[in-house]
């Protein structure tokens, strides 16, 4: 279903759905077939069968209303991680989606603020990379300054990463 959706093959998507394919199955990065659909026809066919965007996609694309709907429907913004160990908040921060990041931060526990992905990037690293200053400040306020000392697998602190990525305002 994923390959057919990404290739824009509406007939093959319809065939797979008719045979019972899970319209909201997730790939290793937490994306749904609708997230990967390449044409409006395929998107329409997936939606017609109940297809929804994943929390990861909605967070990364800044889809505030979709994120709110997914949270209301029970999406676990804290525990869901993709194959890279990222939460939806990591994705929103890295992609500079400040409003979605604020929305997800409200649902994130203090201990989860220290969570790193598989590369060791914490949420502060993600905020530094994406230039989301306000979120970085909120994370520091809730998690404490110790998070600034955490290094990723390359030995970078969030401050060093912000400077490397040209995000001096975050630094």
What does this protein look like?
The chain has 171 residues and is mainly α. The chain is 50% helix and 0% strand. It is built from 11 helices and no strands. It has helices at residues 2-7, 10-18, 33-36, 40-48, 55-61, 64-72, 88-94, 98-105, 123-130, 133-143, 158-164. Helix 5 packs parallel to helix 7, helix 7 packs antiparallel against helix 8 (98-105) and helix 9 runs antiparallel to helix 10 (133-143). The protein is elongated, with a radius of gyration of 17 Å.
Secondary structure elements and their pairing?
Elements: H1 2-7, H2 10-18, H3 33-36, H4 40-48, H5 55-61, H6 64-72, H7 88-94, H8 98-105, H9 123-130, H10 133-143, H11 158-164
Helix pairs in contact: 2-4, 5-7, 7-8, 7-9, 8-10, 9-10, 9-11
Order of helices and strands: HHHHHHHHHHH
Strand content: under 5%
* Cα Rg: 17 Å
The residue fraction in helices comes out at 40-55%
Indicate the low-confidence ranges by residue numbers. none
Return the structural class.
mainly alpha
Distance between the termini: 43 Å
Number of strands: 0
Q: What is the averaged pLDDT score?
A: 92
Shape label: elongated
Main sheet overview: none
User: What count of helical segments does DSSP give?
Assistant: 11
